[in-house]
Amino acid sequence: MFKLFKKNNEPRPLFATLGTDMHCHLIPMVDDGSKCMEESLDCLRTLQAVGYKKVIVTPHFQHPRFPNTEDDIVRRYEQLCKEAAAAGIEIKLGGIAGEYRIDSGFKARLESPRFLKIADKYVLVEFSLHQQMMGCDEMIFDMQMKGYEVILAHPERYPYLNIDGTRIEQLLNQGVYLQVNILSLGGFYGDEAKRRAFTMIERGWVSFLGTDTHNALYCQALRDITHNRKIEKVLEKYEFLNNTL
C-alpha cells in the first residue's frame, strides 16, 4: 500500500510542452532564492523531473536589497554550470538573465544599461508587490526605445493592477509581455492570485509561464501540481512562447 501511494505521487513531466523555464532563482546566495549549491542542483533535478528541458536563470536585481552586478552574476552562473555538469544533471542551463525591479535605482540603471537578457532579446522586470512606482510606464518606454523587449513578471501578484479595468490592457498595448507564475495556478500565493492568473490566461494576455523557483519549498509545490488536471487543461488549450526561447 505504501509503495502504491508513493508511486502515484511521483512528479509527472507535465511541463514538457513548455520546454523552457524562463524565470527562477537558482544562483546560490545572491538573492532570496537558493541558499547553497546543493539546493540549486536539487531544484534543477526537480525542474527536469516535471518536464523542463532547459532553464534560464533570473536572479534579482533590486536596489538596495539585492545590489547584484551583471559581471558577478555571470561568474556565479558559470560556476553553477560547472557544478551541474559534474553532478550529471541533464537539464540544459540555457542562459543567465535577471529579474529587474523597477525601483528607485532603476532610472540610473537606464542611463548605462547592461541588462542580462532572456534569449538575448527580452528583459524581465518586476514591480513592487505593494504599489507601482511612479514613472514605470516611462521607464519601460525608455527600455523599448533602447531596443529591449520587456516581460513583466507575475502580474497576477500585484493586487493594484485591476484586471477588470484598463491598466493591464495599457501595458499590453504598450508592447509589454506578461509572465504568470505556474505556482499561482495551484494557489501557492493565495486564492486571489490564483483567480487573477487564470483570468489573465483565459483572456489571452499571457505570453510566458515561469516557475519562479526559489528553493526546495517551491520545488515540492511544483511536483505536487503536476497532478493538477486544471493546470494540465491550460497547457493543452493555450499556447505560450516558452518553447521559442
Can you give a write-up of this model?
- By secondary structure, the protein is an alpha/beta fold.
- It has a single domain, classed as TIM Barrel (Alpha-Beta Barrel).
- Helix content is about 40%, strand content about 15%.
- It has 10 helices and 9 strands.
- It has helices at about 1-10, 35-50, 70-85, 105-110, 135-145, 165-175, 180-185, 190-200, 215-225, 230-235; strands at about 20, 55, 60, 90-95, 100, 120-125, 150-155, 175-180, 210.
- The protein has a 6-stranded parallel beta sheet. A 3-stranded parallel beta sheet has the order 1-2-4, with helices on one face.
- α4 (about 105-110) links the parallel β5 (about 100) and β6 (about 120-125).
- α2 (about 35-50) runs parallel beside α9 (about 215-225).
- The longest helix is centred in the N-terminal third of the chain and has 17 residues, at about 70-85.
- Residues about 1-5 have low confidence and may be disordered.
CATH topology type: TIM Barrel
Assembly state here?
A: single chain
Query: Could you say how many structural domains there are in total?
Result: 1
* Biggest pleated-sheet summary: 6 strands, parallel
**Shape assignment:** globular
Number of strands: 9
CATH uppermost class: Alpha Beta
Structural class: alpha/beta
Our measurement of the CA-to-CA distance between the termini, rounded to an integer number of angstroms, reads 42 Å
CATH homolog superfamily: Metal-dependent hydrolases
Q: Give, in order, the helices and strands.
A: HEHEEHEEHEHEHEHHEHH
Please, what is the average pLDDT? Answer: 94
Strand content: 5-15%
Estimated radius of gyration = 18 Å
Number of helices: 10
The residue fraction in helices comes out at 25-40%
Strand order, main sheet: write it out. 3-5-6-7-8-9
So, CATH architecture? Answer: Alpha-Beta Barrel
| Low-pLDDT sequence parts | 1-7
